[in-house]
Amino acid sequence: MSDSRESLTKVEISFTVNGERKTVRAHPMERLLDILRQQFQLTGTKEGCGEGECGSCAVLMDGILVNSCLVPVLQAAGSNVVTIEGLAAGETLHVLQEAFLECGGAQCGICTPGMILAAVHLLNGTPNPTLEEIREGLSGNLCRCTGYSQIVEAVERAVHPRTTA
Amino acid sequence: MRSNPADYEMIAPGSLYAIVSLLAKEPGVWVPIAGGTDVMVQYAAGKLPARKLVSIWNLPELRRIEVTAEEIRIGAGCTYTDIRRHEIVGSEFPLLRSAARWTGGVANQNRGTIGGNIVNASPAADSLPALLVYDSELILVSIRGERRLPYASFHTGYKKTLLATDELLQAVCLPRRFSGYFSHARKVGARNAQAISKVCIAALGHLGDGVVEDVRIALGSVAPVPLRLTETEKIVRGKAIDSELLHLARNAVADKIQSIDDIRSTARYRAAVAGNLVAEFLNRLNSEQPGPERGEVKDVLARWNRSSVDEAMQAILPCCASKAWAQGMVARRPLADESALVAASNETWHSLTQSDWMQAFQSHPRIGERSSLEPQSQTARSVEWSAQEQENVGHAEAAVKIALADANQEYERRFNRIFIVCATGKSVPEILEILRRRLKNDAETELHEAGEQQRQITELRLRKWLQG
User: Fold this and answer.
1) Judgement on whether residues B88 and B143 belong to the same structural domain of the protein
2) Chain B residues inside the 8 Å CB shell of A72
3) Least CB-packed of A144, A153, B97, B225 within 10 Å?
């Protein structure tokens, strides 16, 4: 691969990531996933299958859940991307992060960022989901450790936090 | 082998015109990419032959759903989430909503588009059998203009379509004719969701007089293209559903299926399942058959729900001669039952203008007469109903009839329109008393009283109309 060809097809692309305005020079077909991990060192977003089947690379783009492995970075231009790193406010974890911790909703951790973002997306649209709606909302996210019960429980906990210890 | 992004060009011109201009300039060179749920998968596997891509993601011209009285027009760039959330899709096209719900998980539904599903022409795409049975049409656009063609003709072979190299799929149009049908969708795969189908079915049907009046069946994953089972439909149409018919239908399905052994299933399994799915649909259609008492009501309404706008207007106008009312009723279709029909009528009636009300009033004959002042607004049916409503007038004494005619005249002089009363069940002396009381009303009070009487007449007529 020659440098001249590289410079020929690279373009400048700007978008917002976790509230910060970013500009990258990239090939338009580079995957949003790779830009997040390699250029911005936001390695919370994981690559699982790389073909949109497992949800471990899920991020929010303009508020909607997308698999970042299927987003060419050019299509992210001008958008507002939120990754797992953008959920906590400083030292204060997002209520879903707290709930996953409390309920043991993570084992190996690969699926966790995508699971949490899928749950955020679900609760944004359906603040009080039924068990069925929780399962459907997370249905595109696979957990290879099969820790689904605790994951679903964590989302329920976030919806109905215990008022007493 | 993973692809190298440096080998690919991609642009996002941002307008439909710019995109079709580009396709015209270099036909077959630029491949459109919407939400990437197919293209990016091929790319990841190093199997994307195109080197130049043009983004059509989120293009406003392609991402809208327009609803007219006749059809719903879904932009090719609408995602499965857009489709799942659309109210009319939910109420009138349940097969499409089911397919949208089954297609991938949430993230892929947020990015995958109906246009991508159609153009990629996978025989296993869940939405395609639904589009077939709903008689969809496609709008293709190029710099040369638009053309519209039946979706049923679009797929010409495995992953082959009629799309020209300079064309883009702009929209898919579904006629609003099927809301009265019983619908059935089922997918057979390794799991219910997140799995590509081994076989899927989308079917519509309705019964009348104990036989199948109409039926429309399509299957996915059993042939190189989504398959409409027209021969099976012919065998079933006009017949009562019994075990013999199920047997005939199963055989017809098996004859038609030329499916293949592939990684997901075998041809023999698919043919057997396809026959079972068709039989299951027919059994369910049969058990949906309404009981004898409510049957006619359901038939009249179901037929009206799916008839054309003109037919539906003509059918309902005898109940109330205001054109605006009839238009309002037609626009509120589909109506599920008698109470929904009456509720829609009340709501429509109260939303009308005074001149719309006048049109309804003036179509009635005077109390004691048969023909209206505006006979062109009467139909055979409304004449018959007027006669029934006024049946007591014929039995009245001559002196009372004369008094009624006099009071009618006085009313018309005072209010400049005919006297409207819901006469059903009322004796002539009663009507006369009501008329004399209402002569003392001021104009506005009387207008509302007349309007209320017309509303009651319409309601009674709607109930009669439903009886067939």
Assistant:
1) yes
2) 10, 33, 36, 40, 53, 55
3) A144
